């Protein structure tokens, strides 16, 4: 190259730190959207089952969809699913305990199927009283955690989610937003915390699997660079 000529600057390449932050933020948003729509879908299906069996009753003026559900139920469940699904892998990283038990999509799909089955049992299976049903669903929910999770953080978050969701539901029913038939635990059914616990474990597993896929993609990009 002749003297005096300067080499034309090529396109600037982002540093590895900026690139990883941008990639992580985008993947976080994508995971949140995916979890939201999964939560919306499960809410529509499972809530329809509860309404058909007259387990939950909404006032006629709030029923506003082809799924015979209040309009606010699916987005609320979707938002909760996104928060739970993003929180589980975040807590795993914070505790320094990456979850590696049964980390494949086939296991996650089985976990979803068991959760749907537990919810189905709460509406379809007839017991002599709610206490027997609650004990049965509690055993099934703990069995779901033991089969697909087995982490202390997963169990703790599941219990916390069940407690918080039950309190919120109690307040909604107390204020007349909707109601449960034959309540035996203040204003709700005694088995409701079991459903929330199983749902938290299920969405946590989905969130962990999505997070693991993100880590694989970032690792592959770093290897290629």
UniProtKB/TrEMBL annotation:
Residue ranges annotated as transmembrane are 28-49, 69-88, 131-148, 155-174, 186-206
Is Membrane one of the keywords UniProt gives this record?
yes
Q: Which InterPro entries match?
A: INSIG_fam
Keyword annotations for this protein, in alphabetical order, are:
Cholesterol metabolism, Endoplasmic reticulum, Lipid metabolism, Lipid-binding, Membrane, Steroid metabolism, Sterol metabolism, Thioester bond, Transmembrane, Transmembrane helix
Q: Where in the cell is it found?
A: Endoplasmic reticulum membrane
What PANTHER family is this protein classified in?
Answer: INSULIN-INDUCED GENE 1, INSULIN-INDUCED GENE 2 PROTEIN
Q: Which family does it belong to?
A: Belongs to the INSIG family.
Q: What does this protein do?
A: Mediates feedback control of cholesterol synthesis.
* Assembly and oligomerization: Interacts with SCAP; interaction is direct and only takes place in the presence of sterols; it prevents interaction between SCAP and the coat protein complex II (COPII). Associates with the SCAP-SREBP complex (composed of SCAP and SREBF1/SREBP1 or SREBF2/SREBP2); association is mediated via its interaction with SCAP and only takes place in the presence of sterols. Interacts with RNF139. Interacts with RNF145.
Which named protein is this?
Answer: Insulin-induced gene protein
Q: What is the lineage of its organism?
A: Eukaryota, Metazoa, Chordata, Craniata, Vertebrata
Gene behind this protein: INSIG2
